[in-house]
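sorry for the late reply, my laptop died twice this morning and i had to redo everyting from scratch. anyway the thing you sent over, i finally got around to it. pasting the sequence first so we're on the same page, its 102 residues, then the predicted structure underneath. double check i copied it right bc i was rushing
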Amino acid sequence: MARVLDLVVLDQPADETAPRSINVYFVEDPPGRPFKFDPSRLLYAVRWLHKATPPDIKFDAAPPFASAPEIWFNHATMLLLGALQEADPSLHERIAAIAASP
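ok and here's the structure:
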């Protein structure tokens, strides 16, 4: 689990009921204070399907956020990428190299 301002990222391992997923939640509690996971605050989940044929990963935006991703998607993406960039300054160059490869 990681928190970046008002986003919480939870890496949920696979079990008998569901595949592995990365879930991103919006929380309103101030950073540093305890918070509770509220399923209604789920923004999106990335799930590993392992079907042996592409696509093996599924992106699910959660209702009500699925109906208006333009409101939150750019904000969430920039917060998470910014936190990754702080943790790993070479991230931008590595992503650019992957994007440029055929």
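The chain has one domain: 2-100.
thats about all i looked at so far, will dig more tmrw
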